[in-house]
Structure formats: structure tokens, C-alpha cells
Backbone:
């Protein structure tokens, strides 16, 4: 009989670490927080993910470099960037049944 129970968070982390994708999963978590809130600051994101701010800053710099988030210099908050819209559009065009 197959085990259909979802993995615990610790099991997911261990699995992700074993496959080398923990940073990617963390970056996606960050992007999902920014997306759900509209805008978010580093401290807010770090608290939401129970992570240190330096880790969030590194991920945000990478996401910003590729256009997945934009930083408002006045408020020092981030919002979803144009690259996310490009992905959405590509999904819409390529997933028509």
C-alpha cells in the first residue's frame, strides 16, 4: 500500500537539500510572498519565512537582476516584476487545450 500522506516540512527540506534545490524553493517562497502581498520589505519577508534578512537580501538581488521583482527606492519595498508577466503570458499561450 502506498503512503499518500503529505511529507512533513522537515521531510520536504531534507528532500530538497538532497536534490540541491533548497535555494530555488526558498526563492519561489519569497516570490509567492511578494506576489500575495502586492509589495513587501526584506524584514517582512524574512519574518514570514522565519529566515535571516541576509538570505532574503541575496535572493531578492538575484530575482531583481533577472526582472522577477522590482524595488521601489522610496519605500524600499519590492513588487513583482515584468518577468513574472512574461511567464504568465507564455503559460497562457502554451497551455491552451
Residues:
Amino acid at each position: 500500500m502506498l503512503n499518500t500522506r503529505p511529507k512533513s516540512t522537515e521531510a520536504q527540506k531534507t528532500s530538497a537539500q538532497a536534490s540541491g534545490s533548497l535555494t530555488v524553493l526558498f526563492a519561489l517562497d519569497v516570490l509567492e510572498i511578494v506576489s500575495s502581498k502586492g509589495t513587501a520589505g526584506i524584514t517582512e519577508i524574512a519574518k514570514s519565512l522565519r529566515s535571516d534578512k541576509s538570505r532574503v537580501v541575496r535572493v531578492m538581488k538575484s530575482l531583481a537582476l533577472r526582472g522577477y521583482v522590482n524595488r521601489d527606492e522610496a519605500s524600499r519595498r519590492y513588487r513583482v516584476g515584468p518577468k513574472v508577466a512574461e511567464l504568465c503570458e507564455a503559460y497562457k499561450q502554451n497551455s491552451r487545450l
About this structure: Confidence is low (pLDDT under 50) at residues 1-8. The radius of gyration is 16 Å.
